[in-house]
Write a structure and sequence with these properties.
- By secondary structure, the protein is mainly alpha-helical.
- The chain folds into two domains: 9-97, no CATH class; 109-330, Heme Oxygenase, Chain A (Up-down Bundle).
- The protein has 15 helices and no strands.
Length: 341
């Protein structure tokens, strides 16, 4: 991914540090740690803090496809890992304090799935999918794709971190879901490729991260949350719960998204991504709820709380983001950051 524009002192210092091929001077690394600590302590809301979320996003990106011009050795630089852990601790605390969980009764896999379905159905946020189906302008469709592109152009990768951290039934379920996300061995059917095809149909830039400078902090938070859960083995329950909630809230909204694009005259080449998810996620939600999340809890009952936490956090951040976007659109203004800022 290309280097994004910094959004404050922490992301500025991080990107400046990583511009050095041979690692930072000791004093520079210490200054970066100090700047990050001061920002973490001082932020009123880390979920909406564009500087901290961008810094965390860039730190996570080192574990994915990397940042253009940044040496791969930075991935495990001790100073960066230390700051990442500090940002993660504050971020996780904020996520945990923003959600409430169901009763932690010991349940079998069917009971865990039922609790997750109840959580997903209780979502009281504004319906972006219904708005897109009936009202969204062509420009708002483009904004919707930009907001989604930060995840969808690498769809499945954050959840895939969980595979080596699971066993038995839960692992088999995760592999089954992820295999579908990656096109079942057919590159042209990878969901990230299908999403790029949708963007191409609207004459948009399909390079991963092309619009990173336009998305608000909450979009970065939604993506960072998946990396937080996926890259920390102790949070394997949370990434399983997150994926379950994601799949349980996908099928019907994607039907409506597809209808919104058809309303503007786009053909199946553009809507294929959404149409594919209507069918696939109707199956995935059952596998994710019962076999992945439920199977994990049956094998490791102590992870029940984190399974619920991952699901609740996914739903809560989605509501926050949808609320902000819908307020902008219904007021006739863009939900994106201004170009050039």
């Amino acid at each position: 991914m290309r280097i994004p524009r910094p959004r404050g002192p922490v992301s500025t210092e991080l990107l400046n540090l990583m511009a050095h091929w041979n690692g930072p001077e000791a004093g520079d690394a210490a200054q970066f740690e100090s700047t990050a600590e001061e920002a973490v302590v001082g932020t009123p809301d880390i979920l909406r803090d564009g500087d901290l979320q961008l810094a965390l996003f860039c730190l996570y990106e080192l574990h994915y496809s990397g940042l253009e011009g940044v040496d791969a050795s930075w991935e495990w630089h001790p100073g960066l890992i230390k700051v990442r852990q500090r940002l993660e601790a504050s971020f996780e605390d904020a996520l945990r304090s923003s959600v409430s969980l169901p009763a932690l009764d010991q349940l079998g896999s069917d009971g865990v799935a039922a609790a997750l379905f109840t959580m997903a159905s209780a979502d009281n946020g504004p319906s972006m999918s219904r708005y897109i189906a009936k009202k969204a302008s062509l420009e708002q469709l483009r904004e919707f794709l930009i907001l989604k592109s930060i995840y969808q152009l690498k769809e499945a990768d954050p959840h895939t971190w969980a595979i080596p951290r699971l066993n038995g039934r839960a692992k088999a379920a995760m592999v089954e879901i992820q295999a579908d996300e990656y096109g079942g061995g057919r590159p042209e059917r990878m969901h990230s490729v299908l999403f790029a095809r949708t963007m191409d149909g609207l004459q948009m830039d399909t390079r991963y991260g092309a619009y990173i400078d336009r998305v608000p902090a909450l979009t970065l938070s939604a993506n960072n949350m998946m990396s937080l859960f996926g890259l920390n083995r102790r949070l394997r329950g949370a990434i399983a719960g997150h994926l379950a909630a994601y799949e349980m809230t996908s099928s019907q909204p994607n039907r409506l998204y597809g209808n919104g694009f058809r309303r503007h005259g786009f053909d199946e080449g553009v809507t294929w991504y959404f149409d594919e998810h209507v069918e696939a996620d109707a199956v995935h939600e059952q596998i994710a709820g019962r076999d992945l999340a439920g199977g994990l809890v049956e094998a490791e009952p102590d992870l029940l709380e984190d399974v619920y936490f991952g699901a609740a956090a996914a739903l809560a951040v989605d509501v926050l983001l949808a609320t902000d976007v819908m307020e902008c659109w219904e007021s006739g203004v863009s939900a994106l950051l201004p170009a050039g800022n």
